[in-house]
């Protein structure tokens, strides 16, 4: 009688748990990676709990918050204040942050479902990357956004209205918490037939805009100037390093990415999102991840935990693994996820402590060397989205033209 080996999904779970356990139990790993300093666990889930506690204490959570470890102002929607209505306070931070991490892992495994060893290794390389470790170390609420969007994407295997409505509900809930998830609405352009595609996409966009309008006062507090060090992500990084900030830099980044998208699509370098109806959930996940990453990339600078949405890209990239654009994009994404970690390990191991001014100088040189990799990955994603948009436009014109 032969013994059956564990499925790739269970093996991936074991590998990730082993890696995350090493990260948690061996602080030297986090210090070498530049992720762990002297912070406690889950400082970002603590921040939203501190904001909720501040409301109940009569303190303005949108100002400097004395209840937070670092006196951080609340930069998300007021929906987070309902954590107190659930009986949660700062004393429950480990429970809350740990729950987010556990649900994030479950959602990631449900999305990936690796069919074999190579897919397992790819999933492990992403889930064990420094950018993902940063997200779980801080228990950033991007994990919650990932969980909600995954819950909306997993059932979306066809264009049935109940499935679309569920996806829209999860998207709106995520948008109400952190504003930017409405960016996934154009992913519904992959739906067919044409009438359903247009109704679903336009309906979700209109609902999202209305929701953001109702949260306008909260949205005004959402912009925080993220310091540029290791583990930052965004098109404005290169402009800020050159001393250029403001709306002009944002606009230039958007224009450059749009031109790069046109170039990549025109040269056939983008990932094709056409496919059979059975692949709809994987294609929608890819489009959602690409929209989130490209949108967040051009609109500002964030910490690299935003790269957890790379996980949305993997199932369709694996489906298209025989094509050159998919292979190139996988390589670029892995570099984006790991390069800053490699730099931190090298600096912390071989160089050691140095003056802050010299540290910032070396980090800036590193960014100038590695930003082309990030831009190339985002250009391929933007080119793939452009292809999706053009396909939807052709479908619309074809169905609208008289026979």
Give the structure's gist in a few sentences.
The protein has 403 residues and is mainly alpha-helical. 64% of the residues lie in helices and 1% in strands. The chain has a two-stranded antiparallel ribbon with strand order 1-2.
Characterization of the model:
It is a single chain. This protein has 403 residues and is mainly alpha-helical. It has one domain. Helices cover 64% and strands 1% of the residues. It has 16 helices and two strands. A two-stranded antiparallel ribbon has the order 1-2. Helix 1 packs parallel to helix 5 and helix 15 runs antiparallel to helix 16.
**Low-confidence runs (pLDDT<50, min 5 residues)?**
none
Number of folding domains? 1
The overall pLDDT, averaged over residues, is 92
Gross geometry: globular
Largest sheet: spatial strand order: 1-2
In DSSP terms (H or I, runs of 4 or more residues), the helix count works out at: 16
Amino-to-carboxy terminus distance = 63 Å
Radius of gyration: 21 Å
Record field, number of beta strands: 2
**SS content category:** mainly alpha
Helix share, percent:
55-70%
Share in β-strands: under 5%
The major beta sheet can be summarized as:
2 strands, antiparallel
* Helix and strand run: HHHHHHHHHHEHHHEHHH
């Amino acid at each position: 009688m032969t013994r059956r080996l564990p499925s790739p999904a269970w093996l991936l779970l074991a590998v990730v748990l082993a890696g995350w356990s090493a990260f948690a139990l061996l602080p030297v790993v986090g210090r070498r990676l530049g992720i762990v300093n002297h912070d406690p666990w889950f400082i970002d889930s603590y921040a939203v709990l501190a904001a909720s506690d501040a409301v109940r204490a009569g303190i303005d959570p949108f100002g400097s918050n004395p209840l937070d470890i670092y006196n951080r102002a609340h930069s998300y929607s007021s929906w987070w204040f309902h954590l107190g209505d659930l009986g949660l306070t700062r004393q429950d931070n480990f429970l809350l942050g740990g729950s987010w991490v556990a649900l994030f892992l479950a959602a990631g495994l449900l999305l990936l479902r690796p069919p074999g060893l190579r897919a397992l290794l790819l999933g492990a390389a992403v889930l064990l990357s420094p950018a993902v470790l940063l997200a779980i170390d801080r228990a950033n609420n991007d994990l919650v956004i990932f969980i909600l969007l995954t819950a909306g994407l997993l059932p979306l295997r066809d264009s049935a209205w109940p499935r679309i409505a569920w996806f829209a509900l999860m998207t709106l809930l995520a948008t109400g918490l952190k504003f930017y998830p409405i960016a996934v609405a154009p992913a519904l352009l992959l739906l067919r037939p044409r009438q359903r595609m247009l109704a679903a996409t336009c309906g979700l966009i209109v609902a999202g805009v209305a929701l953001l309008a109702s949260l306008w006062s909260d949205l005004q507090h959402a912009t925080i100037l993220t310091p540029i060090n290791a583990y930052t992500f965004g098109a404005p990084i290169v402009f800020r390093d050159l001393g250029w900030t403001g709306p002009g830099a944002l606009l230039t980044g958007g224009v450059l990415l749009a031109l790069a998208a046109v170039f990549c699509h025109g040269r056939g370098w983008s990932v094709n999102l056409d496919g059979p109806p059975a692949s709809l959930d994987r294609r929608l996940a890819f489009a959602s991840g690409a929209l989130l990453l490209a949108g967040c990339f051009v609109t500002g600078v964030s910490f690299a935990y935003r790269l957890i949405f790379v996980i949305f890209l993997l199932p369709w990239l694996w489906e298209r693994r025989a094509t050159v654009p998919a292979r190139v994009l996988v390589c670029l994404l892995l570099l984006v996820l790991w390069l800053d970690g490699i730099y931190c390990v090298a600096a912390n191991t071989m160089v050691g402590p140095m003056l802050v001014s010299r540290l910032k100088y070396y980090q800036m040189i590193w960014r100038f060397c590695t930003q082309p990799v990030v831009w190339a990955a985002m250009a391929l994603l933007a080119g793939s989205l452009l292809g999706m948009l053009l396909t939807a436009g052709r479908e619309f014109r074809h169905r609208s033209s008289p026979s």
